[in-house]
Design brief:
Oligomer: single chain
Radius of gyration: 25 Å
Order of helices and strands: HHHEHHHHHHHHHHEHHHHHHHHHHHH
Strand content: under 5%
Low-confidence stretches: none
Amino acid sequence: MASYTTAAILVLPLLALIAQSLLPDTEVFSHLFDTVLLDYVINTVSLILLVIVFCLLIGVPLAFLLANYSFTGSQFFNWGLLLPLAMPSYVMAYIYTDWLEYAGPVQRVLRDVFAWQTKQDYWFFEIRSLFGAAVVLSFVLFPYVYLIVKTAFKEQSQSLTHAATMLGKSPITVFWQVSLPLARPAIAIAASLVAMETLADFAAVSYFAVNTLTTAVYDTWLSYGSLTAASKISVLMLLMVFLFISLERFSRNKQRSYQTAKQAQNKRLTGYRNWLAFSACLLVLVLAFLLPVIYLAKMAFTYQEQALNSDFFQFGFNSLSLSLIVAFICVVLALVVVIGKRFNQRLAGVMPMRFASSGYAMPGTVLAIAVLIPLTIMDHSLNDYLVSLGQKPIGLIFTGTIFAIIFAYVIRFIAVAIGSVESSYERMPPSLDQASFTLGRNRYITMVRVHFPLLKRGAFTAALLVFIESMKELPAALLLRPFNYDTLATYVFQYVSDEQLELASMAAISIVIAGLLPIILLNRSMERYQH
């Protein structure tokens, strides 16, 4: 019963969003539909396609290289190429704009070297554009492609490539005709994940002034104050998410490959091939992580007195306390729904867990609108009820406090906690439950004395991952934060928007360091898997 209640509460905002979007048309939405909505859709689809292409061009070759070959630095690059995941997209957007715009160091050097005087003397791509946004997002998101596709390449049997080689095929032909087709399901998964992350991004596209559906939701609510119009656009985004998931599953439909042979040891590259492979990996890592981090560190050192101010510590405390609360709630609720599945393996036991996890696919701006709808109704209903009793209204205790942010974060990140706790449960044999029942222990005693001690590591990992994700979340916090309340993410974004990142450089580095923790955990789990 508890798992059903939990799932119902977490799904309520989604149902409220759909119901709100079905209300009669508003002048705001009609105006958007007649003027700019089509442009928003075209920009969104174009951005998603560009980011997918760029991520595949970067991630797939690197994945194949590190899955099949050994070269100088390959052990480091195996996990080092995941480091760009720790960089917030809006920080990357600011840094690359600072470098590549007309007044930036790159174009200044070009003008000095070639004696160009004005912008009309040469061509240089505009970083503040849809193409620039796609490049920056690709640097942040390509590790998803790299990680997923590399795992697929590693699981391929060497007997297949050996057979192709014996038939006289070159390594490049083997890659195109054997390895790549076998990795298509993984590539489809990675592409759909990149598409959903791109659709959900608000900060980078907002900084680059690229109008997408995500920025449309934000502007419709904050500028026009129309919850119904924002809901309609949000549902359109959810349909796009559903489309991505459906296309990914359709692309994998009827694709089966059964490979029982183990992969042989990676082939060692020598000579110029060794240095080409090393240079390719290093170049990507330098552009996507090392240079931006060095730039941030230099900025933080130069402006440390301005960056280490009272706001930094206050907003750091806000982020810390908020993330700890969300992590605790997510782990508790994850235990509730996963335990429900543990004792009921049929569909009735599995469905609450699936419904509870559905919020992770919702972009942050969409989730914020979805949360606002039921909480606004609850606020008004509570105040109206108090007035009917002759009491003084207590104000907006749901939408006017951090309750709304906590609720949204829990809906968005409980899927992360559920995945970690469920993974721990799957390593726990059912025979333990049967032995406990045989000794006369009921379900509750079995959970306390048998399950919980064995779930400590999984629960801690779940709490840590949710904590990190909560520290980095931006769109939902921007829309739901109370007055005079900021987190590190919103604090940094405000200074990025004002072209003054140096004043929030210490906060930006804090977010990056927090983002490195799950990568370290992931690297350790990968090492245990390999050994």
